[in-house]
Amino acid sequence: MYKHRFVTIIAFITFAFIFLPLILIIVTSFNSADTISLPLDGFSLQWFGKVFKSRSLVQSFKNSLALALVASFIGIFLGLLSSIALVKKPGKVSNALLSIFLSPSLIPGIVIGYVLFHFLVVKLQIPLLFALVLGHLLVVMPYCVRIICASLKDIDESLEEAARTLGCPPVKAFFLVVLPNLRPAILSSFMLSFINSFNNIPVSMYLKGPGMNTLPYAMMNHIEYNYDPTVSALSVMLMGMTLVFMFIMEKSMNSQSLKNETVRSE
Amino acid sequence: MKTTRYFFAVGPYLLLSIACLLLPLVFTILPSFFIPSFSLTYYTDFFQDSFSRGIFFRSLRLSLITTLICIFIGLPTSYYISLRPQRRRQIIVSLIMFPLLTDAVVRGFAWISILGKNGMINQFLMNLGIIEDPLKLLYTDFAIVVGSVYLFLPVMISTLTSVMEGIGDDVVEAAYSLGASPRVTFFKVIVPLSFSGLLVAGVLVFSGTISAYTTPTLLGGNQNMMLASLLYQQSNTLSNWTTSAVIAFIMILVSLGVMKLLNYLASRIDKRGVDHV
Amino acid sequence: MSFGELRDIGVSYDKKNLILEDLNLDIHKGELLSLLGPSGCGKTTTLRVLAGLIETVKGTFTLDGQDMTHVPVHKRDFGMVFQSYALFPHLSVFENIAFGLKLRKVEVPSVTKQVQKIVDICGIKGLEKRFPKQLSGGQRQRVALARALVIEPKLLLLDEPLSNLDAQLRVQMRTSIKRIQQELGISTVFVTHDQEECFSISDRVAIMQKGKIEQCDNPETIYSNPACEMIARFVGFKNFFSLDQKDLLGITLPAKIQQAKLVCIRPEDIGFSPSGTLRGTIEVRTYLGNSYQYEVNTPAGMLTVSSNKTPACEVGESVSMAFPADALVFLER
Fold first, then answer.
1. Do B99 and A18 touch (CB under 8 A)?
2. Does A110 lie at the interface with B, CB-CB under 8 angstroms?
3. C33 and C159: one domain?
4. Considering the entire predicted model, what is its pTM?
5. Binary contact (B9, A10; C-beta < 8 A)
6. Predicted confidence (pLDDT) per residue in B118-172, tens digit
7. Nearest residue of A to residue B258, measured between CA atoms
8. Taking CB atoms and an 8 Å cutoff, what residues of chain A touch C83?
């Protein structure tokens, strides 16, 4: 095999470009200086403490967590229902419905946030919290449908038939044979739903109400007024969370389907 | 499966799509075409106003630049990754995916600390005595591009890597055996065979950049608005519904239009004649 | 009355085109019946009708005097082995085999005993704790067979069970299947597109084409007396002539044949002899190990002849050929 010196150099510059900023955040979060700067002054955990002392950050973290959990759980349940229908009854109607269910990932997030706000909140006067949950459900819908649908299609149809010839009624066959084999898909669409909902800004920003702020937006506000490593510390904790998620996903499934997913929390 | 059961199963999401996507889109955007009879006045106004026109073209320009940079960096990097042994390749790809799963605010914040007035770059250059006053790097178009490339490079790399993995050693070895140098092989074999993947990833990067809100807002500031920030300002701060609707429609049009166009090109140009992305 | 009977079965996927049309099939008790035919002939569809996986638009299916036509799959008590084996990937070999027993609420000690027994019979002892992923193709096949057999099915259905195995394993497995089937005396329907495989293990063979059964008989009868040209080609006849050519070949129509359209003969039944009735020139010679096969250009068309005559004929040589009367088969269609 030939050596590609040019390719190798570019690749390493790219890796540096991708990872140095994150490493920088990690390093400065443990620095005792009260601005984000190098060289390091000394080791300190004070910024992590500051995160927990900030009521707005803690509260919005709880909000985001609850919102992401609710949206993901409902999203997965509905995604499972629709996917079964779409896969069991292929045809024009199912194809059309599938593209409708995937469409929120094609429309700019800020547009979704705005039209939801304008229609649900301004026009229909739906309570903000309810609109927020609906909005996040819309955000997670494509991930739940796409991954579960794909995995359901991959599962050998004769598995269910085999269960039935062995004496299993249809619904029981689904629970005994199909559902266990869908577990990796359900887990990974849960992770992606959770991450997308948790990190979402454009939809939350429009639909947040008094006392109902989400973490990413609270962080954005925090950055505007305070330039200290508190956000670094918080970022490190969030990265830790992401890392745990990625680890679980890698363990539980082929990372292929994860790779093909694009995360658009922007 | 019976029809009633079918609609019961897809019902909730269908209802959600109609009530929270279709109807809101129609009700919000339709009025921008009527004053009160059908007219494109709001749209011509948008493009006649130099401020909004400037933002539109800045958004297009920066998205295009971002896409091109992602392609130029992404191609060699993906090729490098695709040449690694399988286990190492998987690890690298997972690592590359990591920033993608990280909060956009976290990523934007990292670049604020690097590009800011008291950021790493300015500190470094001033300590060395190369400059006396800090350079203005943050709140510029440059910062937006850097942030956007940072945001979407993983998308480009992961797409291209999986396409290049599929090219197969035999093709590369055939090129070598015919006397092609590594450089010629890269440009004459690898790049053409990755072209459809390049288009697909290009669409994702372009439409992602042009619809992004967080990164341009954090790194571009108020002076360097993009369409998304303009939409937020018009709708939330100024409650200007028609202008907001105009921007929303333009954003949908641009991102869907680019997507359709390039997907069409990808299917036409793909030299392998199969859909593999 | 036969053990199992399909009567006038019609199947349609789209309510317009019939996949099966007025299909009739008898299954005898304890036999191994094969459905043989090219892909798309409806043999798998017939099997799925038997299993209850496909709704019929008309016709009845009775087994042991019982009308099964509208009995749902899970109440039929048939064992089925799928082409892909359809082993449950999330269950171990033991759990796969025990699946049907557990659904029948069999007591745990009894489940273990029955699984042990069938594991012994199928020759997969020691693999009980493995998962399907960790098995070879032949082992998966045996597990699938064991899973279908352990519920003591009234009927065993095999859907091209050997098609995913390599050639050597196939021969080995088909012998195992035959042995187990005989040992348990279980009525079996076996779907395949491989003629040799089918003839070697079947008690009777039903040859299908375009949704119809063309001939259903024991292998020996089909081999010596094919019912139509398609089957004749299937079982190794290579030389076909229309009856107008009978003078050219120098053959006479036997008295008992009332009407026939075609006459055919196997390559090995044509003899080279100086007193032959047809002359021709050898154009191609291929070596088959124990004999040579010749392509011979004659006034009656190109013939395929195989012969172990030594020394072998040379290309370009002129030969005369004889057609023994008892080797000729007359076909009505």
1. yes
2. yes
3. yes
4. 0.82
5. no
6. 778 888 888 888 888 888 888 888 989 999 999 899 989 988 988 888 887 788 8
7. A106
8. 158
Domains of chain A: 2-265 (1.10.3720.10)
Amino acid in the structure at residue A152? L
Tell me which chain B residues have a C-beta less than 8 angstroms from the C-beta of A202: 213-214, 228
Contacts of C75 in chain A (CB under 8 A): 167
Q: How far is A266 from chain B (nearest CA, A)?
A: 5
Is residue C130 domain-shared with residue C262, that is, in the same domain? no
Please indicate whether chains C and A are in contact, defined as at least 3 beta carbon pairs under 8 Å: yes
Based on the fold, state whether residues C256 and C223 are members of the same structural domain: no
B44-50: which pairs have CB atoms within 8 A and are 24 or more residues apart? B46/B243, B46/B246, B46/B247, B46/B250
Q: Chain C 243-282, CB below 8 Å of chain A: which residues? A: none
**3-state DSSP call for residue A216?**
helix
CB contact under 8 A, C104 and A167: yes
Rounded distance between C-alpha atoms, residue B192 and residue B270, angstroms: 9
Output b/e per residue, C165-196; b: 16+ Cβ within 10 A: beeeebeebbebbbebbeeeebbbbbbbbebe
Residue B227's closest CA among A110, C86, A169, A253? A110
Question: Rounded to an integer, what distance in angstroms lies between the CA atom of residue C48 and that of residue C53?
Answer: 5
DSSP code per residue over C303-331: EEEEE--SSPPPTT-EEEEE--GGG-EEE
Instruction: Give long-range contacts, CB 8 A cutoff, 24+ apart: C117-120.
Output: C118/C146, C118/C149, C118/C150, C119/C146
Does residue C51 sit at the A interface (CB-CB below 8 Å)? Answer: yes
Options 3.30.70.60, 1.10.3720.10, 2.40.50.100, 3.40.50.2020; CATH for B46-276 is: 1.10.3720.10
pLDDT tens digits along C52-104: 888 888 888 888 888 888 888 888 888 888 888 888 988 889 888 988 888 88
CATH number assigned to the domain comprising residue C294: 2.40.50.140
